[in-house]
Amino acid sequence: MNAHDSAAEPAEPARQPQIRPDLRGWDAPWSGLRAVVTGLGVSGFAAADTLAELGARVVVVDGSDGRKKRREAETLRLVGVEDVLLGEEHLSWLPLVGGEPADLVVTSPGWRPDSALIAQARAESIPVWSEVELAWRLGARPGAKEPQWLVLTGTNGKTTTVTLLESMLLRDGQRAIACGNIGVPVLDAIRDPEGYDSLAVELSSFQLEYTELLSPLASAVLNIAEDHVDWHGSFAEYRAAKAKIFENTELACVYNADQPLTEDMVAEADVREGCRAIGFTTGAPARSMLGMVDDLLVDRAFLDNRAHQALELASLSDFGPLAPQHLVANALAAAALARAAGASPESIRAAIQAYEAGDHRIQPVAKADDVLWINDSKATNPHAAAASLRSFTDVIWIAGGLPKGVVYDELITEIAPRLRQVILIGTDSSQLRSSLERHAPGVPVIGGRLREDEHGSEIDAVLAGTDGVRAMRAAVTEAAKVLAPHHTVLMAPAAASMDQFASYAARGEAFIDAVAELMTD
């Protein structure tokens, strides 16, 4: 595909489903269909509820057996779900439905392809769908407005971008909702009695893994970096799952012009005839791109005279006092999708002006003695951490946690000149420490040794302990010992949190509390 103004290679007018082509629309033969739903989270609950409404015979499986799950199970039984199997003992095989094999499995995003139930279903040629696949096949509820789908994925920035996109659409006067991986299941959106003009759909690689048929108006990949390798099995498989988002797109495939790999993903996709490749960049945009000219965000894609003109969308000052490069990139991606859906430049500017960054994403926590303390606990991989680290110089970096199979060498090589001290939390951050020793040998590092390492100090043991709150308090205390004016203490772990915390949010709150304690001492 030529990325500068030409249409994509023509494909079939509309890709037809290869798996159960009869299951399309609300009047399809859902009644009596034997379905297993794996996982009783928000998407699993929505899938089970929807299938029961359609008259399918449904059995739900979930490995947890807590009070909340039991209440949800009882609710599902009341709406017609045949059975809900709770507990790890039900995870080893695919259950029968009414004494017979299932016709369909709808799985929650967290279920890996090599999990026993999913592997068994595929071995027995039973279709495995995501909740998104089910929603797309159904379409809007009869009598409701059929929405245009605007879908996006990426290693980082998905929630920020989909939130901005929703705001742009709403300010344009459209009835729109952000849904998918952001928390509202797509099934809940398409079952709305009135319907929506547009859906702003955040999709994870897990959801895309189990999605066969999707034909959005516009699609976007924000970025791609090594992540979730443990779940997908390899970076190639992770990339392949992300790339599925471009398949069968109708109008615009939006890619990151600053990351050629995303453009390659567009070039490989089979899209609808007439679909265009639209780039976004934080540099000067070529034709059929959105980008930056001086301090202005501009559109050279969705205007007639794009060869010679650019349309102003917003300015850096519209973001407020802090406009990190990655936030600008996310806004440009959101603007590309919004423009594909017909949103005006004025609505895009208004949404950017109203945007407030969420907690735990480059969140200023305190400023004292000309030192800035930043919480970016949501930076759970090297790519996200790099986006934070590029925004600051003279950094005291608090990092570490579960690495999820990623490699840190590229990150450390890039950001080493910005580092003044590194403090590593996490029960095993030895890989990150090793990378720092190889690629940033002049930067002092505290922590990163295993708890049982006989060469570790007492502080190493605390930082690597399973008590995350204590580890974070120790990390903040160590950071305070080396502070100087103009330093930034940045907690951007580049790793997952579950070794020491219940979630990245809990990790961020521990940092905020530790900084507050330090300020009151």
TrEMBL record:
Main location: cytoplasm
EC supergroup of this enzyme: ligase
EC number: 6.3.2.9
Residues holding ATP: 154-160
Location(s) in or outside the cell: Cytoplasm
Domain Mur ligase C-terminal: 360-494
Cytoplasm as UniProt keyword: yes
GO function term, MF aspect, one: UDP-N-acetylmuramoylalanine-D-glutamate ligase activity
Pathways involved: Cell wall biogenesis; peptidoglycan biosynthesis
Keyword Cell division found: yes
Segments for region (Disordered): 1-23
Catalytic activity entry: UDP-N-acetyl-alpha-D-muramoyl-L-alanine + D-glutamate + ATP = UDP-N-acetyl-alpha-D-muramoyl-L-alanyl-D-glutamate + ADP + phosphate + H(+)
Stretches assigned to the Mur ligase central domain: 153-338
Keywords (A to Z) from UniProt: ATP-binding, Cell cycle, Cell division, Cell shape, Cell wall biogenesis/degradation, Cytoplasm, Ligase, Nucleotide-binding, Peptidoglycan synthesis
NCBIfam families, per database record: murD
PANTHER family referenced in this protein's UniProt entry, alphabetically: UDP-N-ACETYLMURAMOYLALANINE--D-GLUTAMATE LIGASE
Protein's job: Cell wall formation. Catalyzes the addition of glutamate to the nucleotide precursor UDP-N-acetylmuramoyl-L-alanine (UMA).
Family membership: Belongs to the MurCDEF family.
Name of the protein described by the UniProt record: UDP-N-acetylmuramoylalanine--D-glutamate ligase
Species of origin: Nesterenkonia halotolerans
Gene: murD
